[in-house]
Every structure is written in C-alpha cells, then in structure tokens.
C-alpha cells in the first residue's frame, strides 16, 4: 500500500512532530505533501528518508492549489490519503475525492471548545469543516475529549476513531549526567529550582501566567522552549517584572533530541534539567508535552490535559490539575520548591501512549477506510460508482495493512 500525508505546514508544532514520529513506525511507503511552510520538520522528515513535497499554497483562499493537488494525487497513484490540520483537511479530502481515491482519513489534532488551531470556531469554519468531513472515509480524534467534540458537532460516531498521540518514552528517560550538562550549557546554576514549559508562544497557551508565577519566586528559573508571536511580549513582561535573568526563552527545540552538532539541547535534555513542568493552557486537544514530562519523571501542574484528564488518576499520579489563577500556580510551585527536587518513576500513562501502539491503531483505521466503499463523483458522461481498494489488487499490499501492523493490542 502507498499512502500520502497532506498537512498544512511543517513548522515546529505538535501535529507536525507527531506526523514525523508516526511515519517512523508505519510499515508502508509514505510521502508527505505540505501546503505551506516546509519548515524544520520537513528537514527532519527528509533526514528520515521520507519524500516531502511543497505545494506552495499562498493562503486559505488560493483555490488554484486544488487542481495542483488533484494532479499530484493522481500521478502518485496513492491507495490512501491522510490529511492533517484544518486547511489540509478541507482541501485534501476534496482533492482526494476528485482524484479518485476513496480511502481518505483525516486526523483532528487541535480542536477546542471555542477554537480550532488557534482560530475562533465561527459558524462558517464549522460548516466548511463538516462539509469536507463528509468527503472522507474516517476521522481520527487524538483523544476522547476531541472525539466528544466532533460528535457534538454532528459527526456520526461511527466515523470517529480515537487514536491518541504517542511518544518514544525511552528518549525521555532521566539521566543525571544529561541534567548537569544541560544546566551548564543553558547557564543555569547547578542547584537552582527550574520550572519548565514547552509549546507555541501564542496567547492561548497562557505562558504569560507562567512567567508571572516564576517571577514571583525569588531564585526560581524558567526554561520555556518554543517560539511564536508572543515571544517579544513575554520577554518584555519578564523585564518589567525584573526577572529577565531568570526567564529563559529558548526558541524552538527538537522534541526528538539534541541538534546534530550536539550544541543545542533538545526537549529530552531540557526536561532532564527541569524540576517541575507546567502547562497553563486553558484548552488542549491532547497535551503531548505533559506526557513527555511525565516520561522524564517530572511532577506536572496542568490546567487542562485530555491525555491525563480522560483517565483515572492512578494512571498519572505525578500530575496535578490546577486552576487558571496566577496565585494558585505560585503557591503550587512554592510547595515544590520547598520540598526540593525529586524524580518520579514513569507512570502507567506513559506506556499507554507508546507511539507503536498508536501506529497499530492507525493501521486499523486505514484498514476500515480501504474496505469501506465511498461514492466518487461521476466521470464525464457516466454515473458514479463506489470505489474500494479491493477492486484493484494492483494497488494493495498482498495481505492488506492490518497484516503489516506492528505488535501490540492496537
């Protein structure tokens, strides 16, 4: 089987990195087409041996991108098209249908109650999403919370499949030597109390609350990995609070490891240098950074995290849910500061979100999509007929995708 993944962009972000990680665990050849911004994740995919193509789309209303996308899919003779993020889902599902690919899967990575990928959920945005959703064979939600939101919109439950995000837990296993080396490279005192955060620097992540909380704790430092439009405002806020020497805005860092030259610590090394991890965002679709922090043995404070909130508390005993106020966060951090740094064993939730299990579940969804007949638009002068991959053995692996699935209970 041959699959094409279509994504809106390949800058550093949770959906983009998750795609890269998933492709490392998929047994079939996959190409990736990005509509815009072939950023750092495109470079990472290419280094993994994945073919990456940039369509060069200029904006949401660049309708000329649609025929280009249709031609690309036809030339590639793909058995399945998998779309990621809003724009790619809208254009990609329509293009796949026009190109004659009936097996189309879309993953909803970032759907909140009031916004999708940071944009307000207006009636028009929702209507366009629902119209394009009907063109696909299946929709993947990254958490039970997202699945419930989709069903609340009116997506039939039978079309929604939960495939949680995943991590390679071994990458985040704590190492005391890495902790010392990373603190030295980032200019942190060896015994300083270090608070951490990871994510896009956008208003919805509410990192300003985290900056204020750390600034209110003399001697505490903040390591904040990520970039975005709020970076300058956060730097200004730290200066206004007199804490610029203790607030470290690190920019984008590779979630899979250090830079190739070894000079720039990646997310695993930065987590080793932290003492407590904070996710202050009010809305999340999953909360992958929280799971990575738990895999590193860190205690976690979070406002919302479906990956944890949807499960019994015993699955993540090191995670504590807090309110949205700055004072509550300051009090919680002060408690950790006074108790001193301690590392926790990786909780059961880390095994639950192993990337190999997620890949196996996704292959099951692919099997359903390939088997389900999807009506295609009529050819000129003819009538529409259902298409299934089973009609055309030349475009199937001999045993189908399920036979190639990696081990696990997916």
From TrEMBL:
Per the record, where are the segments of Low complexity compositional bias? 398-410
Any single Pfam family the record assigns to this protein = Glyco_transf_4
Per the UniProt record, which residue ranges are transmembrane? none
Q: Where is this region: Disordered?
A: 377-410
What are the Glycosyltransferase subfamily 4-like N-terminal domain coordinates in residue numbering? 12-171
GO molecular function terms attached to this record: glycosyltransferase activity
Q: Which intervals hold domain Glycosyl transferase family? A: 179-305
Which domain of life does the protein's organism represent? Answer: Bacteria
The record's keywords, sorted A to Z, are: Glycosyltransferase, Transferase
Asked if the record carries the keyword Repressor, the reply is: no
**What protein am I looking at?**
D-inositol 3-phosphate glycosyltransferase
């Amino acid at each position: 089987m041959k699959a094409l993944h279509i994504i809106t962009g390949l800058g550093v972000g949770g959906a983009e990195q998750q795609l890269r990680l998933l492709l490392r665990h998929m047994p079939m050849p996959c190409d990736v087409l990005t509509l815009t911004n072939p950023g750092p994740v495109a470079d990472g995919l290419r280094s993994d041996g994945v073919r990456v193509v940039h369509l060069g789309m200029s904006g949401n209303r660049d309708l000329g991108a649609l025929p280009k996308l249709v031609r690309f899919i036809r030339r590639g003779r793909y058995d399945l098209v998998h779309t990621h993020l809003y724009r790619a889902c809208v254009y990609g599902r329509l293009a796949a249908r026009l190109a004659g690919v009936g097996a189309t899967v879309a993953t909803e990575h970032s759907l909140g109650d009031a916004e999708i990928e940071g944009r307000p959920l207006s009636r028009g945005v929702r209507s366009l999403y629902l119209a394009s959703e009907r063109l696909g064979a299946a929709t993947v939600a990254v958490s039970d919370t997202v699945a419930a939101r989709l069903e609340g919109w009116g997506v039939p439950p039978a079309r929604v499949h939960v495939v949680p995000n995943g991590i390679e837990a071994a990458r985040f296993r704590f190492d005391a030597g890495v902790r010392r080396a990373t603190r030295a490279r980032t200019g942190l005192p060896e015994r300083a109390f270090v608070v951490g955060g990871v994510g896009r620097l956008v208003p919805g992540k509410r990192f300003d609350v985290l900056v204020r909380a750390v600034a209110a704790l003399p001697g505490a430092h903040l390591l904040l990995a990520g970039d975005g439009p709020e970076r300058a405002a956060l730097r200004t806020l730290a200066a206004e609070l007199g804490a610029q020497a203790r607030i470290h805005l690190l920019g984008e860092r590779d979630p899979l490891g250090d830079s190739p030259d070894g000079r720039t610590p990646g997310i695993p090394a930065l987590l080793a240098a932290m003492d407590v991890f904070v996710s202050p965002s009010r809305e999340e679709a999953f909360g992958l950074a929280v799971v990575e922090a738990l895999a590193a043995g860190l205690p976690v404070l979070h406002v919302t995290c479906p990956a944890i909130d949807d499960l019994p508390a015993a699955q993540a005993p090191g995670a504590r849910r807090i309110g949205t106020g700055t004072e509550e966060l300051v009090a919680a951090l002060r408690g950790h500061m006074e108790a001193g740094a301690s590392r926790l064993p990786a909780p059961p939730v880390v095994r639950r979100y192993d990337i190999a299990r997620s890949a196996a579940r996704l292959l099951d969804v692919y099997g359903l999509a390939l088997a389900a007949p999807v009506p295609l638009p009529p050819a000129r002068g003819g009538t529409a007929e259902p298409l299934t991959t089973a009609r055309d053995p030349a475009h199937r692996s001999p045993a189908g995708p399920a036979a190639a699935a990696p081990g696990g209970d997916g």
